[in-house]
Amino acid sequence: MRETGAGKASSRGWLLAAVIGLLVYGAGVLLAGNPAVGMALRVAAVLLLLVVTARRRSLTAWTFFAMLAGAEVGVDWPAVGLHLHALAEIFLRLVRLIVAPLIIGTMTTGIVGHGELKSLGRLALKTLIYFEVVTTLALLVGVVAIDLSRAGEGVNAPVVAAQQSVGGVGTPQAHQGVEEFLVHIFPENLVTAVGENQILQVAVFSILLGVSLAQIAEDKRAPLMRVLESMTAAMFQMTKIIMYMAPLAAGAALAFSVASMGVSSLLPLAKLVATFYVAAVAMVLLVFVPIMLIARVPVGKFFAAASEPAAIGFATSASQSALPIAMERMEEFGVPRWVVSFVIPSGYTFNMDGASLYLSVGSIFAAQAAGMHLTAWQQAVMVLTLMLTSKGIAGVPRATLMILLATAGQFHLPSGPIWMLLGVDALIDMGRTALNVTGNCLAAAVVGRGESGRMEADTILESH
């Protein structure tokens, strides 16, 4: 459905108000030395955004407002913010509840409905090649960004004992090998795979089930297909219901993060945080946008479709929280369901663009903090190593930390600077997750665009 002129004007008005609100809020943060004035400016910014958001029914707008309001609660009422984490956790639990049934339903019915099993192999090959190219580019963007900013120079990194652990994660002695990773892809128990939210294992089961159903007689597969189609429709409806809670969960998550971390603890690593976010913007402008132009994916329409899942991922710092809405928005965007149901879940293992960018930034930050100079060849080898070792990190707690520590050991980098990253990891993780979500949405759009001409630009435009 096309957006009306009044709707476009309203969107521009809200965006302008949001920018003004952010500037006012930022001024309030900078004036923290004058508590009364600073708080007044921050509250005024929140109220301004509330006024312009009140009449909108956009999930993105309300999520953005809730994030700003949550940040304010975390700054001025940290005791309250610390108790709001339960709301975010409830939302994440509800999302995890529907992820596995949604993947099973969409992927299985998509494969059977598509019928052409030969194209499934072609789709898998194209998807994996795309993932490898883009994640490698993300690693390179991170290397260039940290080399230019030199954020690690002058940082006094603590000396960390070899056996130190944070959050139950110790320095890994050996990273998961290729053989173990390949074995881990295939489930041995569907219930366990669903219970542990092993997305790739659930996807493998769904592919095998879809291929098997496509090869048996119509009368034998019809009863199960009806059940799966009904389950898929119910899961999409449940997604819409759960997403009404997304703004509240986003505000609660940010309130907890700000209240628990504190703003002052982030200042010594502010340059690193700024480096990451500048690199993330560069990734969007220098990699994502050119890919869209080459693949003839409408840039404005894509960002409009991906904004809601990206905003949810940013606020909750959990890629899985955005998976259902990302699949729904990409299908509405015009990507065939069977493509969406294959590409996006696969991207949670093979296409972590934000995590890849962060890994290269973090590893070279550690070298700079230790006063080590890495040659261009050493950095190239490190990028190749990170490209191979970063696969399969989705769903693993402190996954990027584990990869960074393993890389540090391999390249004789000190672990102290990497442990320092924990102080700002929550802040970086928001942008990292949003970039992961956006990258997976783009992968679905690009791969779907090339599948049998089923995603012509004119069709996409007409669908809006």
From TrEMBL:
Keywords: Cell membrane, Membrane, Transmembrane, Transmembrane helix, Transport. Its main location: membrane. The keyword Membrane applies. It comes from the Bacteria. The keyword tRNA-binding does not apply. Pfam families: SDF (PF00375). The chain crosses the membrane at residues 12-31, 37-54, 61-84, 90-111, 123-146, 199-217, 241-262, 274-295. InterPro entries: Na-dicarboxylate_symporter, Na:dicarbo_symporter_sf. It is found in: Cell membrane. It is a multi-pass membrane protein. This is Dicarboxylate/amino acid:cation symporter. It comes from Acidicapsa dinghuensis. The lineage of its organism: Bacteria, Pseudomonadati, Acidobacteriota, Terriglobia, Terriglobales.
